[in-house]
Amino acid sequence: METTLREVIKQITFKHLKKFKGQVFGQNLTGVGWVAGTLPKLYEKDGVIELPMADVANGGMVTGAALVGRRPFYIIRYQGYNWLNCIFIVNYACKSKEIWNKPAPMFIRGLSSEGGLGPVSTSSHISIFYKMPGIKIYSPMTKKEYTNTYRKFMNSDDVFYVSEHRKSYENKIEFKNSIKKNLDIILMPISVTRFEAEKAKNYLNKNGYKVGIIHLYELKPFILKKKWISIIKSSKYGVLMTDNDYVDGIIRTLAHKINEQTNKKVYVLGLKDKSAGYTLETSNFPPSALEIINKIKQIKVKKRL
Amino acid sequence: MSYKNYRLKTFEKASLCRNFENEVFKRVNEKIINFPVYLSAGQEYVPSSIAQIVKDKKQKPLIFGQHRGHSIYLSFGGNIVELIDELLGKKTGCTGGMGGSLSINSNKINMFGHEGLMGSNACMGVGACFSSAKPTIVFLGDASVEEDYVLASLSWAAKKELPILFVVEDNNYAVLTEKKDRRDWKAKDVAKAFKLESYDIDDQPKNIFSVLKKNLFKKPIFINVNTKRLFWHSGAGVDEEVKGDRLTLEKKFLGKKAEKIHSNIKKKIENLWKQRLEK
Predict the structure, then answer these.
(1) Is residue B138 within 8 Å of residue B165, measured between CB atoms?
(2) Which residues in chain A have their CB less than 8 angstroms from residue B153's CB?
(3) Per-block mean pLDDT, blocks of 10 residues, chain A (305 long)
(4) Same domain, residue pair A207 and A280
(5) Using a CB-CB distance cutoff of 8 angstroms, which residues of chain A are in contact with residue B105?
(6) What is the pLDDT of residue A305?
(7) Which residues of A touch chain B, with CB atoms under 8 Å apart?
(8) Burial profile B22-33: b = 16 or more Cβ within 10 angstroms, e = fewer
(9) Which residues of chain A lie closer than 8 angstroms to B124, CB-CB?
(10) Within 10 Å of residue B138's Cβ, how many Cβ atoms?
(11) Which ipTM did the prediction report?
(12) A104 to chain B, minimum CA–CA distance in Å?
């Protein structure tokens, strides 16, 4: 049976603890499903550390562990808790190498949901850190991407924020970019919206559109490859980016960077600028395949006018 | 080491800190230093006493200070010239000219720089102590001990029985707001509630010596040390003359020997500043 992303995360964590004597910190780790089944069933003696329910302090304590070279994993169960947990990480751990020549490498696993969990826990919350220096941000959705992200971390002395999605844990497939010259539009989806963007692309291509896709998971530093630039420049309508964070977050910043380098329009679809409730009617969901399809149709119509 | 010798050695450290801060005071007024400085004159007996005990015990702890860190740095053996250079914004400074007065750091003495969020060092100190099992000292002020995350850190240090010392340099003020206007509890009582061995003492070296001589780094200890800052919270200024300055009292008690030490250190510091300014 093919393994899932969940299994790969578990294996990486096990190796990190046993081979590299790392540590894993977080709240409610050793219960409630062992972090959605991504954590091996280990305890404090093995390096799995249950932290108190003191979110702000905990981020500082993990920074301390990183400063003394334990390369900790820090699990934040809901990315909404970033608001409390990452204060000292972004203001100290991320700056420590540059200011004091004391790196504080850590691997933050921030778990995101995909709507329906109310005002804070519903979605991704990584845009708040995007502007901060010294942080690297990834959002791997596949096994290869996750393994590659971890490998980069082990070859680095930086703070890595890894934006995970519960929906991706069952994933077994790898995504491939689909790009060629003279497309109508190129999708550049981020995180969990990549699954819906794939569906939208397939539908549109079967219905007379020429849609390409570039999957983004290395978000900061963000490098727009030369090949991508030339493909985007040759497209009719430019780019549509999608994300599970607020629409005025990372995607606006990245859209601007892409626009600067290609001189093409870059459209964005993310979470709407509204607070989220708990139901289908009131929550704030990431863009669906249908919304992506409709957006592209709308762009095409507007351009014709 | 006898207590008498300890007291003299502590005086030497405190004198170094005081003379250093007096020179910084001058340079700020001369506008040679133009960024915010946090002078610790008047409070130097706290780090000096602790540093001397640590030295006698042949320990080299991890040190997590805050913004008012010159005396901590100097007491624990930080390089004086590098601190002068840091305050002059030179690349040869202890933090490569990036740290100013607030964010000083020294790899040599295991001192971690501070970023400016008051009390964050308590969390980091606890985490570093837990993960390294190395003896650790966290210096706080009476204001930062009010931060909720500091209290959470005390609690976890107690729970994990870490070899850590929390020191509150309590001068009664948060900038200019007195403790009585901010809270109705004593830091020592809160620490005790977390099951930390805790004390509330003044900055006489014998008091610090007596509470630390037995259990330092054998278990988590919390000491709130009442002290008096001579200068402004930030910058170089004096609001009113402080009565009961510990260094003056100790110098008087220790007599001519201390007078001589103080005067020699003063000359040495003045010369070092002069040399670095000429460079």
Answers:
(1) yes
(2) 54, 57, 60-61
(3) 94 97 96 91 97 98 98 96 96 97 98 89 89 97 98 98 96 97 97 98 97 98 97 97 96 97 98 92 94 96 69
(4) yes
(5) 99-100, 102
(6) 53
(7) 23, 49, 51-52, 54, 56-68, 70, 72, 87-88, 91-92, 95-96, 98-102
(8) bbbbebbeeeeb
(9) 60-61, 63-64, 67, 88, 92
(10) 31
(11) 0.96
(12) 11
Do the beta carbons of residue A103 and residue A157 sit within 8 Å?
A: yes
| Cα of A197 to nearest chain B Cα, Å | 41
d(CA B230, CA B233): 9
Q: Are residues A103 and A235 in the same domain?
A: no
pLDDT in tens, B29-54: 999 999 999 999 999 999 999 999 99
A99 vs B113, B120, B132: nearest CB = B113
CA distance to B37, B129, B176, B182, B233, per residue, from B239 (Å): 16, 39, 10, 21, 10
Phi and psi at residue A222, to the nearest 5°? -105, 120
CATH code (residue A293): 3.40.50.920
How many folded domains does chain B comprise? 1
What is the distance in angstroms between the CA of the first residue and the CA of the last residue of chain A? 52
Which pLDDT value is given to residue A302? 75
pLDDT tens across A271-293, in order? 999 999 999 999 999 999 999 99
Per-residue confidence (pLDDT) for residue B25, from 0 to 100: 97
A87 to chain B: which residues are within 8 Å by CB? 117, 120
A287 occurs within a structural domain: yes
Instruction: Identify whether residues A290 and A145 lie together within a single domain.
Output: no
Is the CB of A62 less than 8 angstroms away from the CB of B127? yes
- Is residue A25 within 8 A of residue A74, CB to CB? The reply is yes
**Which of chain B's residues have a Cβ under 8 Å away from the Cβ of A54?**
148-149, 152-153, 155-156
CATH number at residue A55: 3.40.50.970
- Name A49's bridge partners: A25
Closest by CA to B74, choosing from B123, B115, B39, is: B39
Query: Considering the domain boundaries, does residue A51 fall inside one?
Result: yes
- Structural domain including A196 reads 185-304
Q: What are phi and psi of B216, to 5 degrees?
A: -55, 125
The answer to whether A57 and A32 are in contact (CB under 8 A) is: no
In three-state secondary structure terms, B106 is strand
Torsional sign, CA B71, B75, B80, B86? negative
Contact B99 A99 (CB under 8 A): yes
Q: What's the gap between Cα A116 and its chain centre?
A: 19
Residue B262 maps to which CATH number? 3.40.50.970
What total of structural domains would you count in chain A?
2
The parent domain of residue B132 ranges over 3-278
B137, β-bridge pairs? B63, B165
Domain co-membership, A257 together with A136: no
Please indicate, yes or no, if residue A230 is contained in any of the structural domains: yes
State whether B159 and A52 contact (CB < 8 Å).
Answer: yes
